[in-house]
C-alpha cells in the first residue's frame, strides 16, 4: 500500500534552445508543472504536467492544471492508500477530463511504485526493448533552412523526421524535402490545419511516400477522419483527437486512423496510455510516442512507454540538448545512432536535479497529509 505523505508542485519555466513554430503557436519559453510525491517510507516519485501556457494544443493550460491539482486531485490522492497507479487513475475519474493535470500526478505514482519495487518503470510495465528509436521534429521554416536542419539531424543519427504542415506549406515544401532525401522516413503533422474541403489537396501528398499524416482535421473529430482515411493511401494518425481510452475505441471502431500517437499527458496518464497501446495492438494499429516539448521527466516516461511491444514507429524522443541548455534530469537523454537507451535504474531511471528545479521555479507549493489522531 502506498500512502502519500507529501506532494510538491513546481511551476517551472525554461527557454527552448530554438523557438518552436507550428501554424497555431510559437513556443519560446516553456512552462511546466513538475510534481513530486513522497510516501510514508521516504520514497519519492516525479511526474510532469505537459499543458502549455495557453490553450492552443488542448483546452488545458498551466494555470487550469494548477487549479485542478491543488483544489481536487492532490486532496484526492493525499489522504488515500493506494495499491497501484491504476487505482489512482480510477479515483481521478471521479473528476472530469483535465487529462494533463491528472497525468502529472498519476505519473509520479508510477515512478514511486517502480522505485518501491526496486525496478525500472519500463520493466514494471512490461517493456520489451532495451533501446527505442528516436525521431525528431523540424520546426516550420523556409525550405532552405529546413533542408539544412534536416541534414544536421540526419548527421546526428535521427532516422525519422517529422515536419509541420498547413495549406500554405505542404506539397511544394515536402516535394523539396522528399527529392533531397528520397529514403528518409518522413511524416507530417498538420495540427488540424485542414478540413474535408481539402481532400484533393491532401490526396496530392499520397505521391510523397509519407509514413503518415498526423491530425489533418479538427482536434475534436473522429468521424470525418474516417471519411478521409477511406480516400487517402497515406496512413492517417490521430493525435489531438485521442484524449481518452474511449476516444481510441471509437477511432478503432470507425476506422479513423491506421496509426495512433500516444502522449501520456494528453490521454490522462500512463494507465490510459498502456490501455490504448494494448487496444491498438489487438487491432494491428501501430503506435508511437509523441512529444510535448517536455522536460526530461515526461520524456523519461515516454521512453519507458516506448519499450512496449506495439511501439513500432520511432517516437518524438529527441535528445535533451535538442530542447534545453540544461535538462532537469541527470543524466540527460542522449541519442546514439538514432536510438535512446531505456534506463535500467529504479523508476524512471533518471535522477531529478531538484536544486535546478527550484532555481527555475516561478511558483512552488507543498501539501502534507493531515496527521491522524491516535
Ligand atoms: Mg501532433
Question: How would you describe this structure to a colleague?
Answer:
The structure is a single chain. The protein is α/β, with parallel strands linked by helices and 374 residues long. It has 2 domains: 2-118 and 354-373, Enolase-like, domain 1 (2-Layer Sandwich), CATH 3.30.390; 123-351, TIM Barrel (Alpha-Beta Barrel). It is 33% helix and 23% strand. The chain contains 12 helices and 16 strands. The protein has helices at 62-78, 85-92, 99-117, 121-124, 143-155, 171-180, 199-204, 223-231, 245-254, 270-282, 296-305, 354-359, and strands at 2-21, 26-39, 44-49, 81-82, 131-133, 136-138, 160-164, 185-189, 213-214, 236-238, 259-262, 287-289, 329-330, 339-341, 351-352, 361-368. A 7-stranded parallel beta sheet has the order 6-7-8-9-10-11-12. α1 (62-78) packs across α3 and α9 (245-254) packs parallel to α10 (270-282). The radius of gyration is 20 Å and the shape is globular. The model has no long low-confidence stretch (mean pLDDT 95). It binds magnesium ion. Magnesium ion binds at residues 189, 191, 214-215, 239, 290.
